[in-house]
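Progress report, Aim 2. The chain analyzed during this reporting quarter is listed below.
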Amino acid sequence: MAGDGTASVVVSLAQALPRFDVTCYAGRPFSVSISTVQGDGSPLPAAAVASARAHIRPQIDSDQVLHSFDTADDPVDAVVTDGFLTFTATSEVTTGWGELFPGRAPASVCWWDIEITDADGEPWQMSEAGTFTVVHQVTR
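Predicted structure tokens for the chain:
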């Protein structure tokens, strides 16, 4: 999935979590929207989600967070709407990722996953860890 695409997720207890692999270009704005639906196929209402977040880590099992998308961030970089979770970063933020994220040009590959907290305060893992690839800038 490209960094400015849309993905869909339908999660039930008997189903494996989806994996979202994304690519971002350092120095360009990043935005990805993940479609969220209830078990009956209807959009998950924004009112059912108290918060959402995603962490990018250098390794799948690392405690180090390279970047966090969170509805509580200021400025907000995770937004919940009816049927969607949207994660964004400005070109200024992504410019720094080429240097912050491990690896060398042409790209750094890290890991990310998505979690929501429902209106009752219960956390829900919404995806398994997927790759988060940052393509480095060459001309600066």
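The first strand starts at residue 6 and ends at 10. The chain has one helix and ten strands. These observations will guide the mutagenesis work planned for the next reporting period.
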